[in-house]
Design a protein that fits this description.
It contains nine helices and ten strands. The protein is an alpha/beta fold and about 260 residues long.
């Protein structure tokens, strides 16, 4: 993805031109390669249970080799389970990146922030590049930073909901206060919402369901790619002022209009 070479996303000492992290959990293996290509994605999440399979088809066979894998601990209910899944991912050859997902709640799929901090601390000490999925809480984000997280991934809305930036104000607090990349994850349902997240100052956006439930997945991947680039450019440029009331003419009106 063409971006300013001086404006790269840095995670765990690695630099990436793309700020679109692509989820792969909800669509067919046959569409993954096209989605990665059209998204311009350099990081793709993968559920370890989809890679650790004896079936004929393995998700790792469909992800381009140059792409960095971000295995997640989906299915973990405790910090201990998340750590075990991370170890398994490393043994399967998925590398040192890991996205921590710990959910005891099966209805709303909200992350367990306290357990996420504990798993992050242990895995960071073991040399993993840890990207924890969390509910956007400032104190938890500070604890994750102290625990050695490479970034924090606050949810925008419940997983799979496509509701958009429901937690916008809390994400903005993290962007303003936490000295780590803030990657907006879960609930982003459209390119416009992804663009808005980037305009806020998010370092990156992750999306999965919005693409998987679209009528044309590769085309939607390209739309997200372009929206994320546009949002990042707008953030770097600095958004124009907003008037609290009234209007201001774009061009001088003197001598043209009469009272």
């Amino acid at each position: 993805m063409a971006q300013n070479e001086e404006d790269l996303l840095e995670l765990g000492g690695r630099k990436f031109a793309s700020r679109f992290i692509l989820g792969s959990g909800k669509y067919s293996l046959q569409l993954i390669e096209a989605a990665v290509r059209d998204a311009g994605a350099e990081i793709v999440t993968v559920a370890v249970r989809r890679a650790n399979t004896k079936e004929h088809e393995n998700i790792l066979d469909y992800i381009p080799k140059q792409v960095t894998l971000l295995p997640n601990t989906s299915g973990a209910r405790t910090a201990e389970e998340a750590v075990r899944i991370a170890h398994l991912a490393r043994e399967l050859g998925c590398g040192d990146f890991v996205k921590i997902e710990i959910m005891r709640d099966s209805k709303y799929l909200l992350p367990d922030n306290e357990a996420t901090v504990r798993a992050t601390e242990q895995l960071a000490k073991e040399g993993f590049i840890v990207l924890p999925y969390m509910y956007p809480d400032l104190n938890t984000a500070r604890d994750l930073m102290a625990a050695g997280a490479a970034a924090v991934m606050p949810l925008a809305a419940p997983i799979g909901s496509n509701k958009g930036l429901v937690t916008k104000e809390f994400i903005q607090i993290l962007i303003d206060e936490i000295d780590l990349p803030i990657i907006v994850d879960a609930g982003i349902g459209s390119p416009a919402q992804a663009c808005e997240a980037m305009q806020m100052g998010a370092a990156a956006v992750m999306a999965n369901t919005a693409l998987a439930t679209a009528g044309n997945l590769p085309l939607m991947a390209a739309a997200f790619r372009d929206a994320i680039i546009a949002g990042r450019k707008a953030y770097r440029a600095g958004l124009g002022r907003v008037l609290a009331r009234g209007a201001a003419a774009s061009d001088p009106l003197t001598g043209f209009l009469r009272d």
